[in-house]
Specification:
Shape: globular
Number of strands: 17
Structural class: alpha/beta
Distance between the termini: 78 Å
Bound molecules: pyridoxal-5'-phosphate
Length: 480
């Protein structure tokens, strides 16, 4: 107990255990001004009553934007916001950190605008998030695809081989940037250390979209963060697993980065709202303070224990299988991708939802993705494990989904035009069957996980059709 207390006291005095935006919001709440500025609901007075009751009066009265009441500004970062970003940079081991609204989506777009130009060749893994593509459409840079290995029997992309990165850089000596997603949505981890060493030898900057790995810096039981492995910039969706509110993310520029932080900052200013939500910014500040606190450490260690418990229980279930490191790549222990013999992932999702009131992260035709989070108690995880066990011992049928599967087509793309040229070309809309052999003018990427099936500039092929069940028409580049 004395040891715990000592740790807690140390924690309390640490420079990291303060949250400047939270404190500034608290001050403004405790000393309210006569408000003649936006937002017009004026501390929740002019708002729909049911909504106010639902959120609570305090929550809605804290909804404000930057500039007012000494809360600082986001662009440029001043006051408590600047201080909070500096604390975040220190906590994550970065040179500079930018707080993002509109998620890592805006971070990826700003990175593309800040780091690439029309015609630049960018080496990107094919299973990147669609926001990277949005960025490339806007900047006019052209992707050279790094195709990950496929994970046999799971219908997902796996890890990216450093050798493939090296080969692509040898083949295209004009590649000006490497951009890798790690981990994948399902938790597959690539060897960023080796990829970073390859990039460093050639002086090519490396961005790592670590949207799903924002906790990695805070536990030795999780993979190493790219900020420690030599990446030049890293994105973190703190709202996904880090404990901040939806839409709030961070973009870190590494120490000794090859990336120009000022150019990225300018691009962020271009893309960001001019009325940033102080609640979202405060939630980023609070998430960082929590992660470095004693409580945060306890929560993360509980999360890992719970994830290991769940994995062990699943190992004992004959009909349920999980994605594991023994498949030839590392995985993040907290992302548990499971499949069950005889039923699809969609059916398993429905059973969990309807019969057990369990909501999963996502489901594919093959499997279900379960996230064990910081906030989950042991009882939550035990309830989930018990439910999976019951399901595995019951004879559920799955006629509908098994017959209507639309496997993610892990098709190697045939690029006919740059994404930007195709996106801004003259277009027409044709039935999906007539679209075969034509060049796509739109991004087709269902969320989650937001990985592209087809991109502007790519040839539409028969292999794509099974996946396009929900599409009647597709936008294609108009022929002369
Ligand atoms: C790998 C990856 N990068 C970026 C994003 C976009 O993140 P956000 O939802 O924070 O905008 C996602 C979203 O799912 C993602 O999976």
């Amino acid at each position: 107990m004395a040891k715990l207390l000592k740790k807690y006291c140390k924690d309390k005095t640490s420079v990291q255990v303060k949250a400047p935006i939270v404190e500034a919001l608290k001050r403004s709440f405790e000393h309210p001004s006569y408000q003649f500025h936006i937002p017009g609901h004026t501390k929740g007075r002019a708002i729909y009553d049911d909504f106010k009751q639902l959120t609570g009066t305090r929550m809605i009265s804290l909804d404000t934007t930057d500039e007012f009441d000494n809360l600082g500004t986001l662009h440029p970062a001043t006051g408590p916001i600047k201080e909070a970003q500096e604390l975040a940079a220190q906590a994550f081991g970065a040179e500079r950190t930018f707080f993002l609204l509109n998620g890592s989506t805006v971070g990826n777009i700003a990175m593309a605008l800040g780091c690439t130009k029309k015609g630049n060749k960018i080496l990107v893994n094919r299973n990147c998030h669609r926001s990277i593509l949005t960025g490339l459409i806007l900047s006019g840079a052209e992707p050279v695809w790094a195709i990950p290995k496929q994970v046999e029997g799971w219908s997902i992309w796996g890890s990216i081989s450093p050798q493939d990165i090296e080969d692509s850089l040898n083949l295209h000596d004009d590649i000006s940037l490497v951009w890798i997603t790690n981990p994948t949505y399902e938790g597959v981890v690539s060897d960023i250390k080796s990829i970073s060493a390859i990039c460093k030898r050639r002086g090519v900057p490396l961005i790592v979209d670590e949207a799903h790995g924002c906790l990695w810096n805070f536990s030795n039981d999780l993979p190493e963060t790219a900020l420690k492995l030599g990446a030049d910039a890293v994105l973190h969706s703190l709202h996904k697993t880090g404990g901040s509110m939806s839409q709030s993310s961070m973009l870190h520029i590494a120490k000794n980065s090859l990336i120009d932080a000022n150019a990225v900052e300018k691009a962020l200013k271009l893309m960001h709202t001019t009325s940033p939500s102080m609640l979202l910014l405060a939630s980023l500040d609070a998430a960082r303070a929590n992660l470095v606190s004693y409580k945060g450490k306890k929560l993360i260690s509980r999360m890992i224990k719970n994830a290991k418990y769940l994995r062990k229980r699943i190992d004992g279930m004959e009909k349920i299988h999980q994605l594991k490191p023994d498949f030839g790549f590392l995985t993040d222990v907290t992302k548990v991708f499971v499949k069950m013999d005889g039923i699809s992932g969609k059916r398993l999702e429905t059973i969990l939802e309807v019969d057990f009131n369990i909501e999963v992260e996502s489901a594919s035709d093959v499997g279900v993705l379960l996230l064990v989070n910081q906030g989950n108690t042991f009882n939550d995880v035990k309830y989930l494990a018990d439910a999976l066990e019951k399901i595995s011992q019951t004879n559920y049928t799955d006629l509908y989904y098994l017959e209507n599967r639309k496997h993610m087509p892990l098709v190697i793309p045939q690029i006919k035009m740059s994404p930007r040229d195709a996106y801004f070309s003259k277009k027409e809309t044709v039935s999906k069957h007539d679209a075969v052999g034509r060049i796509s003018a739109e991004v087709i990427a269902e969320c989650p996980p937001g990985i592209s099936i087809l991109l502007p500039g790519e040839l539409i092929r028969e292999e794509h059709l099974p996946y396009l069940k929900d599409y009647e028409f597709i936008e294609v580049v108009k022929e002369n």
